[in-house]
Predict the structure.
Amino acid sequence: MSRSEHARGGPSRLAGLVGSGIGPSRTPFMHEAEGAAQGFAYVYRRIDLDVLGLGPADLGDILRWAERLGFDGLNVTHPCKQAVIAQLDDLAPAAEAIGAVNTVVLANGRRIGHNTDGTGFLEAFRRGLPEVARDRVVLLGAGGAGAAVAWALLRAGVRELLLFDLDRMRAEALAARMAGRFAAARVALAQDLASALARADGLVNATPVGMAAYPGSPVPVELLRPALWVAEIVYFPLETELLRAARAAGCRTLDGSGMAVFQAVEAFRLFTGHEPDIARMHRHFAAAAESFDANRGEGS
Ligand code: NAD
């Protein structure tokens, strides 16, 4: 049976988020609140692997059932962003370049993977730090989110991207992947953080450091100086120790909310075919945080 016709708002939509520990995610609320604001029926379910006793090996079954049950698409998060690729028919260019998928569109019997973390950071960066110098940027963290941010920075025209990760092999693998796709740019490992930052225009934190569970700053704050812009992707809390220190040092800054909102903006477009209202999506994000804080005393 195809999706039902909703009385006034056109066809209803059905989507979901697959991953571990996704209870605090604000993404379901952003999607459903925007669907409601636009006047069509839109249900966005959490498919929590921990609750269901499932793992990445079950992704084939999850996708099959999602298709049978009429889902328009799924967001996928930790630990499924790479494992899901084996289950897909095709990848959008950003997902192919990044090597990870956070959005699967299910349509016409096909499964297409997208990476809206990458396009989300790119959009947030373009809007939040327009016109900043970007010849040389230091990126901390070469995990799943770091890969999406690296792609976005290179798409934004960064000419030299210096990667730093405590796990050197991860940084090396990401440098090799991106260097092969952005031949005009230099993608290398930052050998020494202090000297890399002394020559950089910008710094992006894509490590978990700064989250409530990993407090602190990922770089010594005395290395910050006014000419350096600083972008954060951690968004719980919104003001991390790094951002606080960067503002105090006179740096231009970008917090992690923009990436979180714009990944949902693009996924909403892909799942529903409707154009979300961006200012309203920011308000949904803030409202989700407030209701979560009020109910559970934490959030993400
Ligand atoms: P991940 O575990 O895949 O990767 C994190 C990487 O950081 C690892 O490679 C680790 O070795 C490295 N690392 C940890 N501490 C470090 C340090 N002090 N210095 C250098 N490297 C260090 O995690 P991920 O999926 O890439 O996510 C990272 C963070 O990004 C998350 O904790 C989350 O807060 C944030 N995130 C935000 C958004 C958003 O929309 N704003 C989206 C995804 C992830």
The radius of gyration is 19 Å. The CA atoms of residues 162 and 195 lie 11 Å apart. Residues 78, 117, 140-146, 164-167, 170, 206-209, 211, 218, 233-235, 256, 259-260, 263 surround nicotinamide-adenine-dinucleotide (CB under 6 Å).
